[in-house]
Amino acid sequence: MTKILCHTFFYRFRTQRNTLLGFKAKLEVPRESCSLNDRISNHRLRKRDTVEIEVEDGKMQSDGDKQEDMDRLSDMPNFVLLHIMKFMSMKQAVQTCVLSSRWKELWKHLTDLALNSTDFTNLTHFSKFVSWVLSNRDNSISLHSLDLRRKGCIDHELLDRIMGYAVSHDVQQLTIEVNLSVILGFRLHPSVFSCKTLTYLKLSIWAVPWMTQLPSSLQLPALKSLHLEHVTFTASESDYAEPFSTCHMLDTLVLDRFNLHQGVKFLCICNSNLSSLTIGSTIQEAPYKFVLSTPNLRYLTVMRDPLQLSACKLCFLEQVSIDCEAYFHTHFGRTYSALISLLQVLADYVKIMILSSSTLKILHGLSTSGSMITQIPCFVRLKSLKLKVKSSTNISDEGVGRIVEYLLQKSPFAKVDIINC
């Protein structure tokens, strides 16, 4: 039903907006060419010599029908119109203010703000638009979500204002994807990391590491989903960072291209509620260790770099997905060792294991290096093994079979799926 209403709204909005902006196609019909019945039924013919008809998508719509449709749309309650406007860009939503006096203030009551620079041909115009929206929106209304995505570097003061505005309006879902140019003394707005209303937070901020430092502890009691890219973890006094232990509602955590502050050697992910964890690569050359204290973890995904991992008992672990790569020949030995170590930590718990084509290539390298393949652990609880194989990997069927044989030494009844991709 919502989808139908949205399509209807977009059609009517486009029609009415084009009318107001003078883009309406007109078909002028002389009075003499109209039938007697038409002249009686259309009261406009008594006042003027032409009938105005709009042509759109191969159909003709009279002014009376158009006005009737627009009236029907405007008769909807505000909450329905605001719900429909959620599916529009912020730029389109603001443009509805020209439709009529009914619409003039309606966009100011939106609780979801999607601010995307791709809607603008000029980044300067985008920045001015964002500032104007924040200044003119109804400040008495809380925010449900704010989504900021900008290509190119954003002004530091504007970013600070946006983050502060979101927190001060009790935002529940916050997404920030921007680039920052270097400026001395800049730090991310601290109130974001102690917001009591946030349930979802995604930060992806390209900048030099010291500009994206997080506090040693995140005070986000309602947070359920956290996605962090290009951030720097800090520690208070010790050599390990433990930022997530106070996020008691956290269920999903994604970390990618992150950094540890100077002197920090361990990243401790300590959270008794966490069920899904995705860890990508770091931006540091020197490897460091992850410590997992996540007894309720069910899904683990490892991307690009194998982890140097130590963990508590992962009794509820269901699925592990590994997509690792050895980027340089000089790193092959380190990658082999880290991958085997990771598999050994997970061997007693995992039930479903998914290995990417690049991970198979690393394991195939082990199988050709003599005794190293024998270090692959036995997976005693494994029920399903899924192998994603690309033709470009150049691993023979015999090579794949050798890898499977070692992985399933103590799980002979596990189901094996080979996925060609």
UniProtKB/TrEMBL annotation:
Pfam families: F-box, LRR_At5g56370. Residues 160-305 form the F-box/LRR-repeat protein 15/At3g58940/PEG3-like LRR domain. Residues 73-110 form the F-box domain. It comes from Vigna mungo (Black gram). This is F-box domain-containing protein. Signal peptide: none annotated. The lineage of its organism: Eukaryota, Viridiplantae, Streptophyta, Embryophyta, Tracheophyta.
